[in-house]
Each structure stands twice: as C-alpha cells, then as structure tokens.
Write a sequence for this structure.
C-alpha cells in the first residue's frame, strides 16, 4: 500500500527527522550534567587529624674535608749539595728524625776557623788582663802613669769585645753546621720528595718535601645559617655537639669528633658559617684532602610540629600546602536532582588551603615551621578527593575509611 504525502508533509517529516535527535541530545546532556553536578556536590569522605608534636634531636648535614692539624714544608736553611735522604716516601717519621744531609765540610771548616779565632782572642784577653793587673799594682807605688793604666784597660776591653764577637761567629758557624742535617720538625706522614739527592739547594730552592701530621686530624665544613642557629640553641655553644663523618663508600667512621672552631662571621657568598671538628685518627683512616659527609647531632631534644608527608601537596620550588577542614557557614542549596538522589544528612564542612613552611623531615613527617596552628584539622586521608578550595567534605574515622577502601578494592 502506497502512502502519498504532500510536499508540505514531506517538509515537516524531514524537519522532524533533523530536529528530534538534536533535541534529544540536548535534553540528555542537560540531565547528565545535572546528575554529574549533583554527584560532585556530594561531600567526599576524608579523615582529619591535628598536627602532632614530636621530640627529636636537632641534626644537620654538610660536606667536609679532612685536613692535617700540622702541615710543614721542609726547606733547606743553608746552601749546599744534597748528599743523602734517610727515609722512604710515604713513611711515618718522628720528630727530630734525620731526613736529609747537606754536604757539611764547608760548614765544619767555618766552625774550626771560628773556634781558632775564639782561642786567639781568649789568649789576647788573658794577656791584656794580666797587663791591666800589673798596671794597677804599679800605679799604687806611683811607678807608672795614669795614662798607661788607661791604655791597659782599653786594650783589655777591646780584646774582650773581640772575644765576644768571635764567640758569636763560632755559635753561628755551629748553627749552620747543624742545619746541614735536616730533621723532621713534627711527627707525621712524609710525602713525595720534590728535590732529590745531588742537587744544589738554597733557602730559596723551595720545599724539599712535605710532612703532614696524622693524629689528630681536622674536618672542616660549612654549615647553613638556619642549621647553625638550630644547633646553637640546642647545645652549649657547640661544645657538646657530636660530629660524625661518612666515607664515600657509605660507611660511618666509628669515632666521634668534637667542634673546636667556629668562625666569627657568615660567608657573604654562601650564607654559611665555617666550622671545624677534631677527630682521633690513631688508625690512620682519615686521610688529609679526602672529602667526607658530615653529620651533626645536638645533645638534647627539641619539640617540633609535624604533619604526614603524604597529606601535603606542592614542592620545594612552589611551596607546600595542606587542606584544613572548617565549618561551611553558607546555606546549602538543594538542586533538582536531590529530589531523586538521596544523600546522607551531615554537618556541612569545607576545605581551605593552608600554606606551610617546612624545614626537615622526621620519620616520613614534615617539620612545620609556620602556617599551622595546633588546633587545625588537617586532611590526612582522602587528600586525592580534594580538588579545589571550598569543596565540601564529610569527616569519618580512620577505621571506617580503611574499611571502605578495603571493600572498594575487592
């Protein structure tokens, strides 16, 4: 059976075919949006807790360098040919141990000549003293003139001065002769020889070798101003702060150091304070020049405000923040879909952003320096459900939240 349609009816049918799907999509999209908005307005369930107070020792870390307490460059104090050395490079040498020998013959001759001069002037002085004694005796009997006595006295004094000068030259010659035997000024480990035997050395030739003491040793490091102040407040001017060092392998040195130097100013370029600790190094494990990780621990605990790291957002560049729950004073408006989708009645709460400043961490908790009060309620579970400030939430217990998470995971 054929159905005949007029042009007008055909136009109406065509128009309906075009319009009906569009209207349907619009209505269904509107209804879906209302359902979505309503579901979004349902308070998300979260767990809250207040910031905790934890007692902990103040700690700080830095990079340090091992330094010898004494480091001496051995130089020649007199000129001459270097004849021999009496040690092995890298050995531990003792104080006053013979290290090098400079040719002593020239200086021995100077000692001998100086001694001969001393003997000469000693004899002349003795003779002049005898002449003066005779002149004093004869003047008593008026057998010589006073000018003769004065001349005898002057001769005696002149020879005495010449003898004193000769003795000084003799002592200097002996000192120079002693300098031909170069001895270690300290006890320590000797380094590589820089000028070998056979060379002619002078006082300006530079170091022959270096000796560095091995026990005790220093570890120098720079401490950030913030860490410096924290440690200063929790110690007796750093006297009782324990200092530990760690090798590159990760092993900690078993002995504890003590701070023995704190600089009197802050470095303007780095904003840190130069410090130094002394370590016993009887086993020689700490080698001068080596870089170490330095850890400092205060002698007493300090109370800190902390929050779990998992409940914070942000980063070190943009800053950290947490969500705090507060009462929502605005009247909650009902929407059309609430007539069809029932939600549990509860006191309306909302979240606000709290920007915090952190300084360190303790057992997966951040130490909060500012931004929070002890009475704040912080979202500690369900943080991923909070997207914007002002969002409504429903607070449940941690046990109930764990049960719901476990049930949802099945």
């Amino acid at each position: 059976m054929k159905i005949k349609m007029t042009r007008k009816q055909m136009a109406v049918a065509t128009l309906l075919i075009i319009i009906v799907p569009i209207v349907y999509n619009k209505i269904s999209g509107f209804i879906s949006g209302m359902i979505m908005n309503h579901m979004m307005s349902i308070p998300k369930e979260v767990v809250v807790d207040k910031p905790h107070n934890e007692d902990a020792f103040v700690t700080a870390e830095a990079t340090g360098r091992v330094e010898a307490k004494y480091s001496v460059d051995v130089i020649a104090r007199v000129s001459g040919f270097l004849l021999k050395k009496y040690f092995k490079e890298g050995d531990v040498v003792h104080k006053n141990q013979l290290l090098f020998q400079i040719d002593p013959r020239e200086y021995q001759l100077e000692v001998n000549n100086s001694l001969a001069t001393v003997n000469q002037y000693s004899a002349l002085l003795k003779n002049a003293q005898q002449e003066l004694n005779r002149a004093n005796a004869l003047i008593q009997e008026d057998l010589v003139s006073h000018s003769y006595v004065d001349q005898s006295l002057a001769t005696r004094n002149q020879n005495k001065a010449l003898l004193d000068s000769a003795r000084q030259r003799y002592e200097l010659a002996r000192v120079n002769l002693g300098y031909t035997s170069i001895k270690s000024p300290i006890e320590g480990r000797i380094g590589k020889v820089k000028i070998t035997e056979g060379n002619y050395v002078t006082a300006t030739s530079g170091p022959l070798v270096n000796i560095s003491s091995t026990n005790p040793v220093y570890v120098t490091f720079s401490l950030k101003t913030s860490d410096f102040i924290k440690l200063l407040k929790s110690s007796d001017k750093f006297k009782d702060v324990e200092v530990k060092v760690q090798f590159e392998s990760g092993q900690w040195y078993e002995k504890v150091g003590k701070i023995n130097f704190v600089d009197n100013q802050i470095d303007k370029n780095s904003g840190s304070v130069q410090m130094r600790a002394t370590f016993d190094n009887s086993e020689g494990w700490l080698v001068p020049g080596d870089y170490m990780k330095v850890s400092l621990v205060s002698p007493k605990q300090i109370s800190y405000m902390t929050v779990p790291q998992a409940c914070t957002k942000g980063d070190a560049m943009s800053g950290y923040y947490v969500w705090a729950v507060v009462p929502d004073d605005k009247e909650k408006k009902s929407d059309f879909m609430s007539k069809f989708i029932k939600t549990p009645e509860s006191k309306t709460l909302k979240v606000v952003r709290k920007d915090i400043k952190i300084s360190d961490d303790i057992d997966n908790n951040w130490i909060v320096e500012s931004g929070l009060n002890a009475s704040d309620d912080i979202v500690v579970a369900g943080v991923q459900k909070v997207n914007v400030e002002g969002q409504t939430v429903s607070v449940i217990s941690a046990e109930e939240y764990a049960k719901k998470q476990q049930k949802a995971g099945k």
In short: The CA atoms of residues 314 and 320 lie 5 Å apart. Residues 336-346 have pLDDT under 50 and may be disordered. DSSP finds five helices and 21 strands in the chain. The first helix runs from residue 7 to 41.
